[in-house]
Design brief:
The complex is a heterodimer of chains A (about 300) and B (about 325). Chain A has about 300 residues and is mainly α. Chain A is built from 12 helices and no strands. Chain A has one domain. Helices cover about 40% and strands about 25% of the residues of chain B. In chain B, helix 3 packs parallel to helix 5. Classes of the chains: A mainly alpha (about 300), B alpha/beta (about 325).
């Protein structure tokens, strides 16, 4: 290009350059790129929902609050392990292993995050008419279901599992020899299973109840009542009747019952517990029933307004 | 059916849909070429059911293809190539317009980076470039309509299904929305199916129309042909005096007459012409009747039908049959 032509081109570019701040309609360009796999749409829903939920004030607060039980249980575990090493045989010192099982307060935090994150999942979409947004696209109802349950499960799992997992690793680290640490390895497995069960039993029903109403507050109230009422009433009647059966519908009782079985931490002599298989069956039924309810509700939603 | 003709937008053969005892679609058969199509019909005519069938959301009897894809066998492929702008509000709580459109594109199969680029592009395209970072919850009705259009366009669909796109808009907003929609086929290369009960909207945007009545297609063709079809045997007559006398005389001879102020709107069916041995010459018959009654005709011309008149006429004929 000659110097004259280059000068001309530079001048033309200067004339064509938009003013700063000007809004330009860049027109419409057809899309010629690749498409993602149809089967992966649930991941799109899950990651977007998780990002939206994780930036809410309550999520940040509850995730930060998880540090509290972790620190308290960690310090207690350290103290018990040190005292236990020098205490005479038969001394009444709590087992450091018990600190790993449901670290104090995490179940409440997990319940709260399932309550906040789960309540709005389907209710908000029902209220905003978002089903037509999803299902008029290549998204199936099952993909939507998975995409909505996974983020609530992830957040709940984080609170239910992360502190306990760190504590179980700390427990292994506090043991004097590698052989002893190897013997205690099942502690990590018990933690993983307990945390997963706790997250499932808290998160899935929350999303299922969310499909029953378009009002988030109503869902939160309903979920809290369903969770807290059997727990409180069950506790009172179990004491009065000296039987474990009033706890049949108490979710925390079943979680603790399974956890004690997995961690080999027996109930106290004054406590009454249902057989573990009943707790396992209750948990399985609750999760499966919640998924079935969610599926049924989603299969009935209208996409095109009549 | 695995239609492969890309130029054919919709291809239906004997499509039925029943909800229990209610027969919502009754044997629809049609073939519509690519372009702009208005879907018209009174409430309960089957428009929504037809839209659901088009999107592959309902089981049905018969065979149907959209953009060459079998509706029953390939609903996901159809929905990937169709953009749907719903009638009702559809946004996600707490999302900005650009997030919503980006998400819509990802759900339609675009990779995240491409999805976000196209979200910015379509929002500028629909005139919301400067508002794209605001939450949709706080948008005005007109802005929400534009976001709905943007989310339907973001994945570059080959067919846009617009359900009452001017719903809730003031006259100026309606005008702007229709102006935008009518430019879409030329600018984006997509076809449009516009479902509306506002005939003016359809008239402004569409070349063709499908008229539904009680689950049946009562007309499918160009809007121009619909108007011509309607006006071929309807005449308007103005006389100096004696409107009542002429009306009575025409009605005695089996013609339908309606009064619009001083005008007599006369429908001359072919069987009336045959009965008077005047086949093909309706104006002669009208002049002859006026002469017999001693009425002086000042104006006699074929009626130019609006789409609304044509629509009412076609529906009335369907009801009568």
């Amino acid at each position: 290009m000659s110097a004259g032509a280059a000068k001309k081109a530079a001048k033309a570019a200067k004339v064509a350059a938009p003013k700063e701040g000007a809004i330009l309609d860049r027109g419409y360009t057809p899309y010629a790129g690749a498409y993602t796999e149809q089967a992966s749409r649930w991941k799109v829903i899950a990651s977007r929902t998780l990002r939206m939920s994780a930036r809410q004030w309550w999520a940040i607060l509850l995730l930060i609050a998880t540090v509290g039980p972790l620190l308290v249980a960690g310090i207690r575990m350290w103290i018990y392990s040190k005292i236990g090493a020098v205490a005479p045989p038969g001394a009444d010192i709590p087992s450091p292993d018990s600190m790993v099982m449901l670290p104090g307060g995490t179940m409440t935090l997990a319940f709260l995050i399932a309550l906040f994150a789960g309540a709005g999942q389907v209710a908000d979409d029902t209220r905003a008419g978002a089903f037509q947004f999803y299902f008029a696209r290549p998204v199936t109802r099952d993909q939507y279901l998975v995409g909505k349950v996974v983020p609530v499960l992830t957040l709940t799992l984080f609170i239910a599992l992360a502190p306990a997992l760190l504590l179980s690793l700390l427990r292994l680290a506090l043991l004097p020899t590698a052989t002893e640490a190897l013997k205690k390895l099942p502690l990590v497995g018990a933690t993983l299973v307990t945390g997963t069960i706790e997250a499932l039993v808290l998160a899935v029903p929350a999303v299922a109840i969310s499909s029953l109403s378009r009002k988030r507050s109503l869902v939160q109230g309903g979920y809290a009542v369903l969770y807290l009422l059997p727990w409180i009433m069950g506790g009172i009647f179990a004491k009065v009747t000296r039987s474990a059966w009033p706890d049949l519908f108490s979710v925390p009782h079943h979680i603790e019952n399974i956890a004690r079985f997995l961690y080999r931490q027996p109930w106290g002599p004054e406590d009454r517990a249902l057989p573990v298989w009943i707790s396992a069956a209750f948990v399985a039924l609750l999760v499966a029933g919640s998924l079935a309810l969610l599926r049924k509700r989603l299969s009935a939603v209208e996409v095109v307004a009549s | 059916m695995t239609a492969t003709n890309a130029a054919t937008l919709l291809e239906f053969a004997d499509v039925h849909k029943r909800y229990g005892a209610h027969h919502a679609l009754r044997g629809l058969s049609l073939s519509v070429p690519a372009g702009t199509v208005g879907l018209l019909g009174p409430n309960g005519a089957g428009k929504s059911t037809l839209m659901k069938v088009l999107l592959g959301l309902l089981p049905f009897e018969g065979t149907a293809a959209v953009l060459g894809h079998d509706v029953r066998a390939q609903p996901a492929q159809i929905r990937a190539r169709v953009g749907y702008m719903p009638e009702r509000d559809c946004h996600l709580v707490g999302m900005s317009a650009v997030e919503l459109c980006g998400y819509a594109a990802e759900l339609s199969g675009l990779p995240p980076s491409e999805a976000m680029q196209r979200a910015h592009m379509v929002l500028e395209f629909v005139g919301l470039g400067d508002k794209r970072y605001q939450k949709v919850d706080g948008y005005s009705t007109g802005q929400k309509q534009r976001v709905k259009l943007a989310q339907a366009l973001v994945h570059d669909p080959k067919l846009l299904l617009l359900d009452e796109p001017t719903n809730g808009l003031d006259p100026q907003g309606r005008d702007e929305m229709l102006a935008l929609v009518s430019t879409l086929p030329a600018r984006t290369g997509c076809s449009i199916v516009l479902s509306s009960h506002l005939l003016h909207d359809v008239e402004r945007v569409c070349e063709r129309a499908i008229l539904l009545h009680e689950g049946k297609i009562v007309y499918s063709g160009t809007i121009e042909a619909l108007r011509k079809e309607g006006q071929k045997d309807v005449y308007e007559v103005r006389v100096k005096e004696g409107e009542d006398k002429l009306q009575a005389a025409l009605e005695r001879r089996g013609m339908g007459v309606e009064r619009e102020g001083p005008l007599l709107v006369v429908q001359v069916h072919n069987n009336v012409l045959q009965a008077h041995n005047n086949e093909g010459r309706p104006t002669e018959l009208l002049f002859a009747v006026a002469a017999e009654e001693g009425v002086q005709v000042r104006h006699l011309a074929p009626r130019k039908l609006t789409l609304e008149n044509a629509f009412v006429r076609v529906v009335n004929e369907a009801k009568a049959s």
